[in-house]
Amino acid sequence: MSLLLSHSPKIFIRKPVLIRASAGGSSSPLQTPPCYIDGAKFAPDNVELSFAYTCKDYPKRKKKAPVELVYNDINDPITPWLAEKFKEGNKVSDAAVTIGSSHGWVASLLHGVGILRLHDDLNPAASDANPKRISLPPLVTLPHCQTQIITNVSLSSLSPGEEDCVVAVKFMGPQLSFCRPSAQGNSKWFNIRIANPSFYSSRVMFSKKHNMFRIPGSGGQLIASWDLCKDIKHTPKFQELVYHFLPEPTEAEREVMDTCLTTEHLVESQSTGETFLVRCFRQTVNKALLETKAVMVFRVSPRGNAVYTQDIGDLTIFISKAEPFCVRASSFPGVSPNRVYMLDVMEQACFKLADSFITTLTERMMAPYFFPPQNIEY
């Protein structure tokens, strides 16, 4: 049973409703609620996906997708047939694995040849009959860098098919790469080496408000931004954060937090224009699993003031292996406000800001991506 389905009768009921993007005018597009894949039934040539939605009374939908976009870990004990598949003549280095998602587009990497491809096959609003797949040029590895382990992918637009869309790929280590998919067949990678090691394991996001790609540094002290329109040299701009109203943890809380792996996520609210920094503290349990033990949310001002808050109002934040996003809860009946939902390979978690209460569930997620609201076009 999914934590997000069982946590509250108002959260993640498995039936989809078409919802308008805003409560106002009739010109606003119909959208799917936030969702994730909660089932993937294997078939010889594809998998049948089922989705868990945040809203009740939403017609349950299933769709088909390529097997390799869901079952792509040959070392996964629950899919031992994958190892047999590679014994039949395929090389492990030739396997395509998913490495991130942004705006409903999932990115896969074909190891061995370094080809990154964008797919809408897992998008709940995309067509089964006419899936869109966009291949990008072969990755270029900078000296003393690597392009096999990727932290995440970010798109500057809703679709990589848009003329001005830029794809950003953050690799583990100093390399950050950009590509414009629609460059009339002349697309290529622009590669940047980040000097500051605090950004080596961080995730990139696109700020629509600032029209820049931004990365929070490890520890949350710095934010680096790249203005690809004005700065042809791609020199980062750095913003130093100053924290305010930090809570004083108890001795027991401090002992736990000192043993945790901390990750930082920048999230932007399109409806309010606010920027949030979310710090997640995860502790190793059972020698292999990571479990969320604490979450801290900060409002970040243009001047770099990071103000601790337990009240983000009508907003709800979604963090997963996809690019994080934020929605206005009242726009999607059934979504609970003032919460942070988290999804990882082996964990689902819900954090209530008002009382700092965390609920977690250990469960294998074949596609650990939250999908933001998608426009219904058919």
Could you list some keywords that capture this structure?
single chain; 378 residues; mainly beta; Neuraminidase; five-stranded mixed β-sheet; 3 helices
Question: Could you characterize the architecture of this molecule?
Answer:
The strands form seven sheets. The protein has a five-stranded mixed sheet with strand order 18-22-21-20-19, with helices on one face. A five-stranded mixed sheet has the order 24-23-25-26-27, with no helix packed on it. It has a single domain, classed as 6 Propeller (Neuraminidase), CATH 2.120.10. The longest helix is centred in the C-terminal third of the chain and has 8 residues, at 251-258. The protein has helices at residues 3-6, 81-87, 251-258, and strands at 19-20, 30-31, 35-42, 47-53, 62-65, 96-102, 105-110, 115-119, 133-135, 150-155, 167-171, 175-179, 189-193, 205-207, 212-216, 222-226, 237-240, 242-244, 261-268, 275-285, 289-300, 305-309, 315-319, 325-328, 339-344, 347-352, 357-361. The protein is globular, with a radius of gyration of 20 Å. With 378 residues, the protein is mainly beta. The relative contact order is 0.14.
Provide mean pLDDT, rounded. Answer: 84
Q: Tell me the domain tally.
A: 1
Structural class: mainly beta
What is the distance, rounded to the nearest whole angstrom, between the alpha carbons of the first and last residues?
Answer: 31 Å
The number of distinct β-strands equals 27
Counting H and I runs of at least 4 residues, what is the number of helices? 3
CATH fold annotation: Neuraminidase
For the record, the CATH architecture stands as: 6 Propeller
Low-confidence stretches: 5-20, 22-27, 86-93
Shape: globular
Q: Strand order within the widest sheet?
A: 18-22-21-20-19
Pfam families: Beta-prop_KIB1-4 (PF03478)
Protein name: KIB1-4 beta-propeller domain-containing protein
Domain KIB1-4 beta-propeller: 94-347
InterPro entries: KIB1-4_b-propeller
